[in-house]
Design a protein that fits this description.
The chain is mainly α. The protein folds into two domains: about 120 residues; about 180 residues, hpI Integrase, Chain A.
Length: about 375
């Protein structure tokens, strides 16, 4: 074992999981030149976390934490029989998949867990850390239609909530209006800065620069009425609404900090669910979710920040935007994802019954 790797093997508990220094040192030496026979599973996991899929990208901390959690769950399972992942056989990986399936996870969760473990094991085999491809017996996880999330958000629902919040809760009004009008991911909204707003004369619109998935910088339109609502929200919280380049969060907390996106997402969903007595459609969504759960199916009908992105896609489609334009707006890597967002809207707008109008045989 090289001198670079040896200290980490002896002091696993002191690994700095978020520092890339050790990874870069080993890369310079060459993975193939290292004797991995004494490497701990923790070291192998650390190296996997920092092995970016492409040059110029960097996994976010939230992604690192998710991968860390999923691989550690896998370690907990295999360490019942083996001291190291280097000792296991492909059949044990399949047994792990069957084990977590028995725990009642949804197909979407099972696929995510299996994918992370698969990527980890492929990384080990690629660099000679294990002698055998441990993924060759893994089962493919099929997604059942009755386990997909129903993220349709209808015009009348959006309008009803906007009218209510405008009268009773400017914080929620600003949040909802911004999300449905821009298609921003909640992570993007939470990290966006007021100083990133610029006016583009070619479009006669203001845009805010945000860092999206894959660390891609993109420009998101802010319509005048949305910008005015954001300005009012900021002034109510004691911040400038002037477009003077003030380097504060676009959507600031009362103390001026950025919101944690998980907190804001949960708060958004909870505030809307709390209105089920005022709005029958919210109560109906909650009841439908419970009905599916009682029948052993997991379908989510709740309104979340991500639901707003689906509304944005449907709204732009109704205004004549084509699929490619909507894909670019929402920062989808594939048009297939955009098409999935619009599957219900297109299903009914293109239904044969629509072609003959609102009556059959002239309503004889």
């Amino acid at each position: 074992m090289s001198e670079i790797v040896q200290p980490i093997i002896q002091q696993d508990n002191e690994i700095n999981w978020f520092s890339k220094d050790t990874y870069l040192s080993i890369v310079q030496q060459g993975f193939r030149n290292v004797d991995w026979s004494r490497a701990s599973d923790e070291l192998l996991l650390y190296l996997f976390l920092h092995d970016e899929p492409s040059i110029g990208t960097k996994r976010k901390k939230s992604t690192l934490k998710e991968y860390f959690r999923e691989v550690n769950q896998f370690f907990t399972y295999i360490h019942q029989w083996y001291e190291s992942v280097r000792e296991i056989h492909p059949e044990l990986v399949t047994q792990y998949q069957l084990e977590i399936e028995q725990r009642g996870y949804k197909s979407t969760t099972l696929r995510r867990k299996s994918t992370v473990v698969q990527q980890f094991l492929q990384f080990l085999y690629k660099y000679g850390m294990v002698e055998e491809d441990l993924t060759k017996s893994m089962k493919r996880i099929s997604l059942q239609k009755d386990q997909l999330v129903n993220r349709d958000f209808y015009e009348e629902e959006v309008q009803a909530l906007l009218q209510y919040f405008k009268k009773h809760d400017w914080y929620m009004y600003t949040l909802l209006f911004t999300l449905v009008s821009t298609g921003l991911r909640i992570q993007e909204l939470c990290s966006a800065r007021w100083s990133s707003i610029t006016y583009q004369p070619e479009a006669n619109l203001y845009f805010v620069s945000v860092v999206g998935k894959r660390d891609k910088l993109r420009e998101v339109p802010l319509f005048n009425e949305v910008l005015e609502v954001l300005q009012e929200f900021r002034m109510r919280r004691g911040f400038s609404g002037e477009l003077n380049g003030q380097n504060t969060p676009l959507f600031p907390k009362p103390n001026g900090d950025h919101y944690n996106f998980k907190y804001l997402s949960n708060e958004f969903t909870k505030q809307i669910e709390n209105l089920q007595d005022q709005f029958p459609f919210i109560k109906r969504r909650i009841e439908m979710e419970k009905q599916f759960a009682d029948s052993g199916k997991s379908v989510r009908f709740r309104i979340t920040p991500h639901t707003c992105r689906h509304y944005t896609a449907a709204y732009y489609l109704s205004k004549g935007a084509d699929l490619k334009a909507i894909q670019d707006l929402l920062d989808h890597e594939s048009s297939v994802t955009t098409d999935q967002y619009l599957r219900r809207t297109r299903k009914f707008s293109e239904h044969a019954a629509v072609k003959i109008g609102g009556s059959f045989m002239g309503a004889q």
